[in-house]
Specification:
Layout: H1 2-27, H2 35-59, H3 63-68, H4 73-83, H5 86-95, H6 98-109, H7 117-148, E1 160-164, E2 171-172, E3 181-187, H8 194-204, E4 210-213, H9 215-220, H10 222-230, E5 234-237, H11 250-268, E6 276-277, H12 286-294, E7 298-300, E8 304-305, H13 314-328, E9 331-336, H14 340-355, E10 359-365
Parallel strand pairs: 1-10, 2-7, 3-4, 3-9, 3-10, 4-5, 6-7, 8-9
Helix pairs in contact: 1-2, 2-5, 6-7, 7-14, 8-14, 11-12, 13-14
Bound molecules: zinc ion (ZN).
Zinc ion (ZN) binds at residues 187-188, 238, 242, 280.
Length: 367
């Protein structure tokens, strides 16, 4: 609570100061330029915004907790937009550190009236171009070095197909997988550019995975869910709009499940979607879970979380994922094909699976 109050207070103070400075700059020509003080103040606010978001990330163990946090980037951006003119918001965002800016990309894409939106997107894009290049060249170098040491196993075993009888409408956490078997799963897509990158990496390594597509996304990018299927992957649904279904009225939650699955099914044609479902944020209640079962959808949770929504540094994401693979040894691994860092980290995650002799698994609906 203290954090929110001090945040609001400083926004109010900055707003008041902003007005003061405008008057001051118009009338007192002989005075020192006010821009220095104003810049300092904006820098201070940018730091506060960054601290608020970073604190929320630190305090959230799950995406669900992060989404509900007052310091979630979307909430922070809304508060800023409510209290500041858009130029001031832009001045602030231009000064924010890149690490925090990456977390603001998604909420920024929903704001039509921020004039600097394109410039910020470009800044984020430049960051990823550089990061991806650097990360890939380091990976290639490590691979070359590994090849010179004898006995290094690098090829991934062929993806194993695990058939799911969806008439049983089972609920999976580990998917009954043994140690040494991992089903890669990707949520929230398709994304207009990142899903294709993920698909190309998987194609190059001949790995098949399971996608859980958001109904709204499948509807706007049907060619991508079709490509997922054409390239041997399985596609289930992940609700229509990615609401936290445990916090919705029963009817809203049920419609999210039904509409989401119908949208994915329609977008997939002529391919078939699987009667697989995953709860947004993994958040459910007993009654909505029962409803999903009554619709003869198999539910997939996960036991290996990569935290790829949080770990924007690909090296850190790879390190954490390896650690989780070592700890769990097998099961269902969760990633998001909408995250840029995931596209950068995935080749190395596959390298690690190959090195450990882990067999990839794809869930296919038994027909
Ligand atoms: Zn999701």
């Amino acid at each position: 609570m203290t954090q929110i109050n001090s945040f609001h207070l400083s926004l109010a103070a900055a707003l008041a100061m902003g007005i003061g400075l405008t008057l001051f700059s118009e009338k007192n020509w002989a005075q020192p330029t006010p821009s220095a003080a104003s810049d300092r103040d904006i820098a201070k606010m940018a730091q506060e915004v960054s601290d608020t978001i970073q604190k929320a990330l630190k305090e959230s163990a799950t995406l669900d907790e992060f989404r509900a946090h007052t310091g979630h980037p979307e909430n922070v951006l809304h508060r800023l937009m409510d209290t500041q003119p858009s130029e001031a918001v832009c001045n602030l965002l231009e000064q924010i550190d890149t690490e925090t800016l990456l977390h603001l990309e998604e909420p920024l894409s929903h704001e039509s009236d921020i004039p600097c939106s394109a410039a910020l997107t470009q800044k984020i894009q430049n960051h990823w171009t550089m990061t991806a290049k650097r990360h890939e060249s380091q990976r290639k170098l490590r691979q070359r070095l590994a090849r010179t040491s004898p006995g290094t196993k690098k090829e991934l075993p062929k993806t194993e197909v695990v058939e799911i009888d969806t008439s049983k409408a089972e609920v999976f956490y580990r998917g009954n997988l043994k140690d040494g078997q991992i089903a890669l799963t990707f949520d929230d897509g398709p994304h207009p550019s990142r899903t294709r990158v993920i698909l190309d990496i998987l194609k190059e390594r001949n790995v098949q995975v399971t996608f859980f597509s958001k109904g709204q996304q499948a509807k706007s990018l049907p060619e991508l869910v079709q490509a997922e299927s054409r390239e041997g992957h399985s596609v289930g649904s992940h609700s229509m709009n990615h609401k936290d279904l445990s916090r919705q009225k029963a009817l809203t939650a049920q419609n999210e499940v039904i509409d989401g699955h119908a949208a994915v099914t329609a977008a997939m044609k002529p391919f078939e979607s699987a009667a697989f479902f995953r709860f947004p944020y993994g958040a459910k209640t007993t009654s909505i879970q029962e409803f999903v079962k009554s619709k003869k959808l198999s539910t997939f949770f996960w036991n290996i979380d990569t935290l790829d929504w949080k770990l924007t540094n690909p090296a850190e994401l790879v390190r954490y994922t390896k650690q989780q693979i070592d700890k769990n040894k097998g099961g269902i691994l969760l990633m998001h094909d909408i995250q840029h860092q995931t596209t950068v980290a995935l080749p190395e995650v596959l390298d690690y699976m190959a090195e450990k002799g882990i067999t990839p698994v794809v869930f296919i609906q038994k027909r």
